[in-house]
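Lecture notes, part 5. Sequence design as translation. It can be helpful to think of inverse folding as translation between two languages: the language of shapes and the language of residues. The source text, in structure tokens, appears below.
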């Protein structure tokens, strides 16, 4: 006698509600995976950018250290000074020495752009230009040194020492001109030096080396209004009085 299979409870077919829930769960999982992949790609891109920036900063720091070493060598190594002087003289450029005005000039030449001196290269730090100016001034190349100092006048950090050093270079020129057959040529040079020292004192009234050198220049070439001011009595401007008195040094000994 054949046995009949036991009849169990019938398995209900999946309802549409359960199917929709499962589909939403799958969609949420897929979107979460896509977001994770996007975040991973962004993280890799950010890491690559940071690596590039870090490498660039390392190169900049290495280049700065290289220039710092070259500038420091100018103070201790005579060979470095001579090498810098030869390099600076080779790159003086047309702006270092003022050219005489031509009598007549073709229109094409007048409209031609002025060549930019090689020592004004933006890739070279301005500290190196300042150091070159010091070397040139010590070697007696006053015009080339003044050109470099004047190119740094507007620099927020090097502008003040560049103005002061320019005044010192002009005074050195004036001393040489006073000993030359034409000592009268030193008068405008001394006036330029005095104006440079005045600018330094306007920016920094406590700059005692500039005040002392200004008084030395005043003794060599007093201001035209000095006698009138002394006859009229004490001047109203205290700083002017301190820096224009003959024979009285208000600065360094």
């Amino acid at each position: 006698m054949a046995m009949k299979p036991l009849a169990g409870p019938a398995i209900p077919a999946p309802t549409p509600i359960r199917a929709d829930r499962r589909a939403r769960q799958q969609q949420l999982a897929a979107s979460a995976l896509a977001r994770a992949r996007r975040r991973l790609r962004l993280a890799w891109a950010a890491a690559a950018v940071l690596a590039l920036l870090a490498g660039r900063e390392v190169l900049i720091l290495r280049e700065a250290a290289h220039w710092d070493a070259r500038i420091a060598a100018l103070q201790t190594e005579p060979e470095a000074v001579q090498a810098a002087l030869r390099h600076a003289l080779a790159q003086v450029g047309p702006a270092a020495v003022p050219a005489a005005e031509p009598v007549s000039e073709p229109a094409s030449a007048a409209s031609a752009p002025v060549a930019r001196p090689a020592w004004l290269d933006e890739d070279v730090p301005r500290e190196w230009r300042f150091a070159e100016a010091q070397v040139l001034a010590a070697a007696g190349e006053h015009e080339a040194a003044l050109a470099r100092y004047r190119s740094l006048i507007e620099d927020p950090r090097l502008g003040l020492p560049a103005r002061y050093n320019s005044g010192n270079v002009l005074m050195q020129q004036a001393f040489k001109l006073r000993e030359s057959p034409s000592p009268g040529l030193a008068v405008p040079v001394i006036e330029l030096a005095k104006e440079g020292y005045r600018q330094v004192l306007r920016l920094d009234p406590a700059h005692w080396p500039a005040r002392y050198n200004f008084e030395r220049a005043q003794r060599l070439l007093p201001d035209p209004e000095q006698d009138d001011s002394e006859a009229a009595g004490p001047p109203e401007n205290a700083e002017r009085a301190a820096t224009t008195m003959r024979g009285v040094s208000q600065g360094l000994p």
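The translated text above is only one of many valid answers, since several sequences can fold into similar shapes. Residues 153-253 form one domain.
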